[in-house]
Design goal:
With 603 residues, this protein is mostly helical. Helix content is 64%, strand content 3%. The strands form 2 sheets. The protein has a 3-stranded mixed beta sheet, sandwiched between helices. It has a two-stranded antiparallel ribbon with strand order 1-2. The longest helix has 38 residues. The chain is globular, with a radius of gyration of 25 Å. Bound molecules: zinc ion (ZN).
Length: 603
């Protein structure tokens, strides 16, 4: 189907950015006011941040300014996300970003002056602070790892140069890489990054699926040395920074901002690798038998168990389904879902130049905006429920937290969103007793929710840890080392259930996450908390829901272990993770049972 131009999509399927500013004129006026306010704050406080009350007053005024700035950035940025082909929107967004960067650098004295104050002043400031308490406490913790002002200044000046590895990676991936067409049985197929990941990996015809995988890998391989060099520069730099700043090792340095212990990090990787593998191998064997494949390869893992069964859902129907599925979270949550549809928080449309995938962007103490590319599939309903989970988190934490303390640690970011996926699956299972439907829902939970978070991203996390171990011991990595590691990684997890064909070892080239520190493992961490809290809600009802809402409202005001404790999940032990892996196993057992009943296939 030809994609429409943005101006031709029905307004009802677009989001309403006038919820932020009535029109563009109002946004420019707000920007002018913000610039004046930034100048006033600089004039008032520069050189004067020595006393506790002044520090707190300055941070409080700055908080209001950043709130306005965030609204302006959302207005300009979201409009562009919906249509990157519109040059006027692009120019406007660039003007806004430029102004924001200027304001930020004009106010960068605030943090550096605060950090120069003696510890007792900082502690006194943190005590009297309300909205900026956690922000100040975090600054104090960072102080121990700060270098001399001259060195910090030099590092800040080098900031853009230090980002070069990621820029090189993205340029390779988004601009340089060019895929050749491939041919199967005389028919030619076009190939590209998203064509491969969104279509061919899920393609039901094994000949086309595997040929696409070969063609995709062959092209990736041409860029392996450049990509490895960029990645080596990135991890070497992270190691150097950890040494300069006096961390014990590169892991401590990267976990520091997440407020996560080494034990919590290692546990996700080790437990899932050991204990989830037998369950996932069984699922792979089931896929193989159901599809009648004589070999099961890495290129076959993303196919649906029952591809012909794919219920269609309209946007209007999705409202009813999501509303019912999330009703367990209470009337205020349902009201948020209704508002999302009524006030047009969601951009459903598919049009030329729009960002792919989906995301949710919150506007502090206002509402969230959700970008989707709606295709009338039940999987779109899951994506929307997921994004509404982020919106729900924002709603509760915005109301309870300051702008500074609003965002949870990366460790927990995906908990509210995956909770909604699980609640939606529970609801669907209750509404329709049909076996094939039931199997379709359960296998979706495995092949989407858990595969994505507990397998794809976790294998990345395992590999990343090996890379950092090499770098921490003073070594470096190249394409050969990285490919060997990734092959070993996949073989370790899949054993003899899945063949790892030539090209699978290049999976290390596919993710931008590697340039973002220890990020990949957090997907499984958030979903562990969500799974245990969901099981509690299923068992206990109201009290567990109340705890979940308190968890959402806590935002980023506490470290992850204390946050999860509010939801009744004790992540200081490995109990929740083990229980989650057992739960995944029980779902796979049921899928196998249903397949035996429906198709007479046994694994
Ligand atoms: Zn998400």
């Amino acid at each position: 189907m030809e994609l429409k131009a943005r101006r031709d999509v029905p307004v009802g399927e677009t989001w309403d950015l006038s919820l932020i500013f009535a029109d563009e004129g109002q946004m420019w006026a707000a920007l002018e006011e913000a610039k004046a306010e930034a100048a006033r704050i600089a004039e008032t406080y520069m050189g004067r941040l020595a006393a506790p009350e002044t520090i707190v007053a300055c941070l409080d005024e700055q908080e209001k300014l950043w709130q306005t700035v965030a609204r302006i950035s959302s207005y300009a940025g979201l409009a562009l996300e919906a249509d990157y082909t519109d040059n006027a929107l692009r120019e406007r967004e660039e003007k806004v970003s430029d102004a924001v960067v200027r304001m930020e650098s004009g106010l960068s004295f605030v943090d550096s002056e605060i950090l120069q104050a003696p510890d007792e002043v900082l502690r006194a400031a943190a005590e009297r602070a309300k909205g900026c308490r956690v922000y100040l406490t975090d600054l104090i913790a960072r102080k121990a790892h700060r270098l001399s002002p001259e060195t910090e200044k030099a590092l800040a000046a080098l900031g853009r140069a230090l980002d070069v590895p990621y820029t090189v990676y993205n340029t390779m991936k988004l601009a340089d890489i060019a895929f050749d067409d491939f041919t199967v049985n005389g028919r030619t197929y076009p190939l590209g990054y998203s064509l491969f990941e969104d279509n061919y990996e899920l393609e039901a015809d094994p000949a086309v699926r595997r040929a696409a995988f070969r063609a995709f890998s062959d092209t990736l391989r041409r860029y392996e040395n450049t990509t490895a060099a960029a990645y080596n520069a990135c991890v070497t730099q992270e190691k150097t920074m950890s040494e300069l700043r006096g961390f014990r090792d590169v892991f401590d340095s990267l976990l520091f901002p997440q407020k996560v212990t080494r034990e919590m990090y290692d546990r996700q990787i080790d437990r899932i690798t050991e204990r989830l593998a037998p369950h996932m191998r069984r699922y792979a064997r089931l896929l193989q038998k159901k599809h009648g494949l004589n070999r099961m390869t890495f290129a076959d893992l993303k196919i649906a168990l029952d591809p012909e069964y794919d219920p269609k859902v309209t946007i209007a129907e999705s409202h009813r389904i999501i509303r019912e599925a999330l009703a367990v979270l209470g009337a205020d949550y349902t009201e948020m879902v209704d508002r999302a549809y009524r006030e047009r928080w969601v951009d459903f449309a598919r049009n030329v130049g729009k960002s792919t995938g989906g995301f949710c962007a919150g506007v502090y103490r206002q509402n969230s905006f959700i970008l989707l590319n709606w295709n009338d599939r039940m999987s779109d309903v899951f994506t929307l429920a997921h994004e509404l989970g982020h919106a729900g988190q924002s709603m509760y934490s915005d109301a309870a937290q300051s702008f500074y303390d609003d965002d949870p640690s990366t460790y927990l970011v995906e908990a509210p969103s995956t909770m909604n996926e699980l609640l939606l699956a529970n609801h669907l299972l209750q509404t329709n007793p049909d076996k094939r439907f039931r199997r379709w829902v359960l296998s979706g939970v495995i092949s989407n929710t858990y595969y994505h978070n507990f397998v794809t991203h976790l294998r990345e996390a395992w590999y990343q840890r090996e890379v950092y171990r090499i770098v921490d011991a003073g070594g470096s990595v190249n394409a050969e080392v990285l490919s060997d590691l990734f092959r070993k990684n996949l073989e370790l997890f899949w054993g003899d259930a899945v063949e790892i064909p030539e090209g699978a070892e290049l999976t290390w080239m596919r993710q931008p996450h590697y340039y973002m520190g220890l990020y990949s493992y957090t997907y499984s961490a958030g979903l562990t908390v969500a799974t245990q809290a969901m099981l509690r809600i299923r068992e206990e009802g109201a009290p567990a829901v109340a705890d979940w809402k308190r968890f959402l409202a806590a935002g980023g005001s506490l470290p992850p272990a204390e946050m999860a404790g509010i939801a009744g999940v004790d992540i200081t032990t490995d109990g929740p993770l083990n229980a989650t892996i057992d739960y995944i196993g029980s779902l796979i057992d049921e899928i196998c049972r249903l397949t035996e009943e429906i198709d007479g296939i046994r694994v």
